[in-house]
Amino acid sequence: MVADIVPFLKSANRVVITTHTRPDGDAIGSQVALGTFLASKGKEVWMINADLVPYNLEWLPGSGDVRVYDHSIELVEAIASADAVVIADTNALHRLGTPGNQLKGTGGKRILIDHHTDPEDWFDMSHRRETASSTGELIYELIAAWDVTGISAEVAQALYVAIMTDTGSFRFSNVSPTLHRMTADLLERAGVNAAWMHSMVYDRKSPEGMKLLAAVLSTQQLHFDGAVGTMVVTRQMLEDTGAPVEETDGFVNMLLSIEGVHVAMLLTETARGTKISFRSKGEWEVHKWAQSMGGGGHRNAAGAFRAGSLEATLQHILTSAPDYLALIETETEPALSEEDAEYLAMLGGG
To answer: Which end of the chain has fewer CB atoms < 10 Å from its terminal CB, N or C?
Structure first.
């Protein structure tokens, strides 16, 4: 709880902050906000991740201080000698990537700040709440409990981005009046307007990225009377357009704008298997579905990775849907429709 974490961090000298692989806005925003605040309090702060900061978040003040773990003596020693290791926006070891085992084995206190379900049990302290909109919301609470005046313009921008991105620009069901009051405070402190920050995150597509979007939209399919929508990103699309895979960020949310779609999934083909991004509206929960494939997340946003082809993963998703979407009403055991079968054949699934 905050009451335990704040006094401990006040006494700490060296703090390492990390987050999950392929970090998103909530992950980077939370990490940078806490790191910037702790540095302002005289702490030696190391922000260490398995992966780079996404290109659309590189503008955030402090994001340039995030280091990619490279097994160097400098970073290994930083983790080994840390008084505290803060794990933000994830609660599972495998989601930390290459530095995970060292972070878990550190001699310092391991502090979890997160809003996802089913945390692992290797953390020493935690501030977590599954009903929180984002990890950014929890970081705000921690900083405010310590010194609300320490929320500088830089910290406020990072926290606003964390909350904005993990609430689907404030449209998910986890948005509350309390959260709006919190974000109003952040906007007053940020020194820039909300439209500018939204544009910096979402409106910076390259020409290659727009070509990729067009290709991905062409794969859109609706299933189960339009309640479920899917799109795919193939390796060939990435090669043909020249767009980096990071430019697919936000694609899955476009499916949710279709009337009647309650659950959206973006399947991305990789060399090792298929990455699945889940998004949903309201009471349509997707985190258990992701967990069934070794992933996780929260009720309206989750992710998983499945070894195997894109086609096999898509078929698995379609056939397993009724087990995880209780609101899908069917009189008989659902099966792939003729349209779905044709879609699989188009992708090469036979």
So the answer is: C
Residue 276, domain extent: 207-347
Pairing of strands 44-49, 14-18: parallel
CATH of the domain at 318: 3.10.310.30
Q: Are residues 262 and 165 in the same domain?
A: no
At residue 184, the pLDDT reads 96
Distance CA(277)–CA(268), nearest Å, equals 8
Q: How many domains does the chain have?
A: 2
Q: What's the rounded Cα separation, in Å, for the pair 196 and 204?
A: 11
Residue predicted with more confidence, 211 or 344? 211
d(CA 61, CA 27): 15
Full-model pTM: 0.83
pLDDT range class, residue 332, cuts 50, 70, 90: very low
For residue 210, the one-letter residue type is M
Question: Percentage helix, strand, coil, to 5, in the chain?
Answer: 45, 20, 35
| CA–CA–CA angle 224, 266, 219 (5° rounding) | 75
15: left (phi over 0), alpha (psi -120 to 50) or beta: beta
